[in-house]
Amino acid sequence: MKEQVLNILTELCPGIDFEHETALIDDGLVDSLDIVSIVSEFMAAFDVELSVEDLQPENFNTVDAMVEMIQRAQG
Amino acid sequence: MKAKKWVGLFCLTVALLVGLVMAFNYVTDPFGAFGDPLFQWFSYDETNNPRVAKISYLDTHHEEYDSYILGCSSTSSFPTEAFNQLYDANFYNLIMYDADMLDCEKIARYLIDHYEVRYLILNVYIDNGITYDEESNNLTKNLHYQTDPDTSALSYYSRYLLANPQFGLAKLKALRQDTLLPQSFDVFDEATGVYDKRVRDAEPIGSLADYLEAYPVFTDYPQYGPYGLYQTENCMNSVAAIRDMCQAAGVELIVVAGPVYKDYFQSFDREAVVRFYEALAQVTPYWDFSCSSVSCEPRYFYDATHFRNNVGEMMAARIAGDNSRWIPEDFGVYVTADNARAHMEAALDAQPLQASEISAQVPILMYHHLTEGESGGETISTEAFEAQIHTLAENGYTAVSFDELQAYVYAGAALPEKPVVITFDDGYLSNYALAYPILQKYNMKATIFAIGVSVGKDTYKDTEYAMTPHFSYEQAAEMVDSGLISVQSHTYDMHQWPPFEDGGDALRENILPLPGEGEEDYVAALTADFTRSRQELEAATGETVDVLAYPGGMYSTLTQWVLETLGVRVTLSTNSGVNTVVRGLPQTLYAMKRLGMDDSVTSDGLLALLQQAYK
Amino acid sequence: MAFTSWSFLVLAGLTVVLYYLAPRRFQWILLLAASMVFYLAGGFQALVWLLGVILVTWGCGLLLDRQNRRRKALPKDDKAGQAQIKRRKKQIAAAACLLCFGLLFAMKYWNFTVGLLPSGLGGHMPRWDFVMPLGLSFFIFQSVGYVIDVYRGKVEAQRNIAKYALFVSFFPQMVQGPIGRYDALAPQLTAERSLDWRNVQFGIQLALWGYFKKLVIADRAAVLVNAVVKENCPYGGIVVAFSILLYCIQLYCDFSGGIDITRGVARILGIEMAENFRRPIFATSLTDYWRRWHITLGQWMRDYLFYPLSLSKPFARLGKWARKHIGGLPGKIFATSLATFVVYFVIGVWHGASLKYIVFGFWNGAVITASLLMERRFQVWKAALHIQDKSLGWRIFMMARTSLLVFLGRYLTRAPRLLTALRLLKTTFTDVRLGQLADGTLLSLGLTGGDLVVIFLGMAAVLAVEFYQERGGHVREALEQKNALVQWLAMVLIVAAVLFLGVFRTGYISSEFIYKQF
Which of residues 117-156 of C touch A (CB under 8 A)? Predict the structure, then answer.
């Protein structure tokens, strides 16, 4: 799953080293537009439902956090 | 620096800067809000805010007055001098531009409560029906807090202490540019409180066409409007309040509606105008000057909303019942509630005074030296002179004196049908020896302007160079005694001739100030010169000297004003033309135009020159 | 009560003094009292609306809070119960939004909407004649944000209505924001505080800077702008462009100056309010500009409009459709882009009830959405042209491009109406009349040469400070390190500038104009 997440990320936001960044939101590398694009893509790709409440910075700062969020949504 | 220290320093710095501004505003006091402690320059302060500065002025000067004139800017031409004589009182004119009746009510209350008030003259102007209780600027148009129960002392003082310091700077700048005559920054006369109209009052006036060209504002009406007179009721309530407070305090109230330029009434609905004055009459009887034949004549006004000081004097004369002065029949009616409507209906249809009724075309001929020998230039041969006088007599011209012109202007006396004035400049012996007999022969009056220093002389005073001989005081007295000749002033010694006089840079070729001469020095010099000229002439001839021909025809507003204050009522220039002399307008006798005469003027030529006067 | 009035200074000064003198537990009550005084100065009616909004959102907050607690108490697997609570919450939040935005709509947009209707219909609709309360849209946004935060479980509801009222009505923010977040602002407002002189110093400095921008630059520039930008503007394109440039300066200095005053006063009280501007002149794209300009509005829109909208069911369905029918990256971001467009459109309309603001919204939305969709294409071009993203030249190019886009948009916000804006734009490009720069026209527009120099020197100072900040500098901290004389001179300089170039810029009339009759 991490692989797939990484693929999505690199397509939507090229030029960012997602594997090693740990503060994507806090450092301003990913903005609100990207977040929404990413989340919509996640919802389409993994068939999960994410809501506004999930859009917390801590869920997006690292790839692992995102994976965790998706797994949580999958229940 | 520690934060606490920084904050302390900040407070100190702000306090210091604000304190500096306040101190500066207090010291310069451009509105007279603090009594102008340093400069006592109230004519400046009143220009910025008459409502405030006049009250400050009265604070220290109220003992000089016992009566007051109140109203908006048209009130300025209520002459304190004339009203002082009329009521045997000491008037102060509290005119305030754009004053509404609430301003008047508040100030009247303050005056009555605080000062001795015998008479109160209230001017009710048609604009008082437009605005009421408006304060469009809280620095320039508000009342002094002492006169206004709606203004607290705190807001008043903080406002003026924290006013823009540019006002004070402008005052300092004006201080350096101040002159004897008023400028745009000091338009008030401190002692009387009126707008200082010395400049406009010194201005020569002639034909209506010339006047309208110089002041096109008169032809612009109606400019705006129609204005509604929606504040009539409020205005009259304030008039009633003033009436009641005067009654209670034993103050005699005289309500006057000053003249309004007639075309200005076109800015209003006619019925509303009638109702305005009717409402006034219901509150109190009043002297109505608002609309009459005077209102139809632009030359009686400075501009459409401000009538001339001369008209103000006519008002005072009418109220006083003084018949020695010319006043148009329909000017000034005492109006009561009974006759108000009928009077106003008629007044608003007032017809202009006919030109022939109020004005006369007066040509003035200017001669100098006569000779039986070789003539030329300004010097005319005796034959040519006699031919010209003959032409005048033959064609029905009557030579008149300046006394007659003054009587026409001031008292409305008649002038002969074809008046002409004959003048001689400089006072040459030839005037006595050659011209006088001819004038006697044709019974023609003439006026000779003698230079005091050269009377009876045939040499220049400093250098003993020979000059054309001048007649003596004895000869002058002889001519005057005939009743035909008047000898008037051409200055005592302000017509010097540089090649033949000592005096270096200080030579006075004419009556204007010397280069670099201060105003005060100049006024003193002019006063001394004219006074001596008059004294010597009057002593010799017994005739009043109040006419002066400007040497070289040169003059200025300041000159004209100084001479007026010295009692000179007619001045003559050398500008070519025929004069329009108007009843009630002394300015038509200022810097009068003259037709220069010499050998070349033939009989037909002279008639043509004179004819232009009667076109 | 304008920030530039003496009465505001007196109120702020008194509040500060009493705040630090008062017993700690009464400090917040003092702030509330000051806020009520401030708001009451704008009229009693305005206060009624404010109190109404406070009451509604506070009540809804409490109701939502109860549902939140019920939900926690419910066993996880009670799906029906959870769903029922969720429905209930939605109803409450919707009611709050409806009431608040209904009021906003009625006050701000009703008459405009009626005016748009055909006269046969519009003529019969009643007009809304109330005066719009001061800062209405700001406190509505702030309080609705609170309700949604409670709805999302992000914050706990405030039980004490007085404390909540202080959050909504804290006086420095009432004129023009910033739009505060409950979790960030409310605890600070009610905290008990002792005097920290450094807060006072920094607060005064910030407020002074705000007054400098507002009084010295913005109010001055406004004179020329007002003289030029009007119906039937008789000037050439160059003068129009110059006046719009001055308008950009005016707007920035006025708005950011006002916010600095707000934040400065709050800082004196020890309260740190949200940043609303982050040097927008350095923005490299229109999106970046909107992240730096009126930040709290942008963030509000993001959190409370953009996120819920783009994650809503209809948008999810739209996204699916686009992925299938458009495909590729554009297909993937199509729905998001549409949501972006909607957000900028709303931001445009938020500025006021007029056709021009609708076009303004379209303008921003269209440019940003287009650049979003084209982004990949640009990347290719950039790579082909060997342009380095971080190079100075490229950055300056981007800044200039962004400034131009903002500049063009400002024609819309400044002109009295849409048609005038379009006409002025046309003049700018088709009837330049360069000569008017030099023939004295510029000096006949109410400003002297000295005024123009003051504006541009003032702006140069602002830019210098912002450049320093953009590079990571902290002005007040750096100044603190200087020796006492330098600090004092800096203080005198700015106080004197504010006083003599700002406060005393107006109110003077030459005596020639006072008495015009001669």
Answer: 152-154
DSSP conformation letters of C170-199: -GGGTTT-----HHHHHHHHHS-----HHH
Using DSSP's 3-state secondary structure scheme, residue B417 falls into coil
What does the pLDDT look like over C40-58, one tens digit per residue? Answer: 988 888 899 999 999 999 9
Of A8, A16, A31, A32, which to mutate for an interface test with C (greatest number of C Cβ within 10 Å)?
Answer: A32
- Which tens digit of pLDDT belongs to each residue from C283-300? 988 888 988 999 999 889
Q: Mark the ranges of chain C whose per-residue pLDDT is less than 50.
A: 517-518
Q: Is residue B471 part of a domain?
A: yes
Residue B613 has pLDDT above 70, yes or no: no
What is the rounded CA–CA span in Å between residue C400 and residue C392? 12
For the segment(s) A2-12+19-74, the CATH number from 1.10.3720.10, 2.40.50.140, 2.60.120.280, 1.10.1200.10 is 1.10.1200.10
Q: Determine what percent of chain A is predicted with pLDDT higher than 70.
A: 89
Average confidence (pLDDT) over B124-132: 93
Band (pLDDT 50/70/90 cuts) for residue A26 is low
> What does the block give as tokens for C371?
């650049």
Look at B328-332, B552-556, C432-436 and tell me which has the smallest mean pLDDT: C432-436
- Residues of B404-433 as b/e, b for ≥16 C-beta within 10 angstroms? bbbbbbbebeebeebbbbbbbbbbbbbbbe
Looking at residue C474, its amino acid is H
Using the beta-carbon criterion (under 8 Å), do A36 and C332 form an inter-chain contact?
no
CB pairs under 8 A between B and C: 79
- Cβ distance B165 to C504 less than 8 Å, yes or no, reads yes
C200 and B7 within 8 Å at the Cβ level: the answer is yes
Do residues B90 and B179 both lie within one domain? yes
pLDDT tens digits for range B249-297: 999 999 999 999 999 998 899 999 999 999 999 999 999 999 999 999 9
- B6 neighbourhood in chain C, CB within 8 Å: 197, 201, 487, 491
How large a percentage of chain B has pLDDT more than 70?
99
Q: Which residues of B touch C496 (CB under 8 A)?
A: 17
- Report the complex ipTM: 0.88
Domain ranges of chain C: 6-194, 203-437
Of A11, A33, A50, the CB nearest to C340: A33
Task: Report the alpha-carbon distance of residue C242 to residue C445 in Å, rounded.
Answer: 12
Contact C332 A40 (CB under 8 A): yes
Counting Cβ atoms within 10 Å, is residue C157 exposed (0-12), middle (13-18) or buried (19+)? buried
Contact C326/B at CB under 8 A = no
Tell whether A51 is within 8 A of chain C (Cβ): yes
CA atoms of C416 and C411, how far apart (whole Å): 10
Q: Does B281 share its domain with B418?
A: no
Neighbours of B88 (CB within 10 A): 11
Q: How far apart are CA C511 and CA C19, in angstroms?
A: 45
- Which tokens belong to C158? 């405030």
Chain A residue at shortest CA distance from C308 = A52
Are C515 and B139 a contacting pair at CB < 8 A?
no
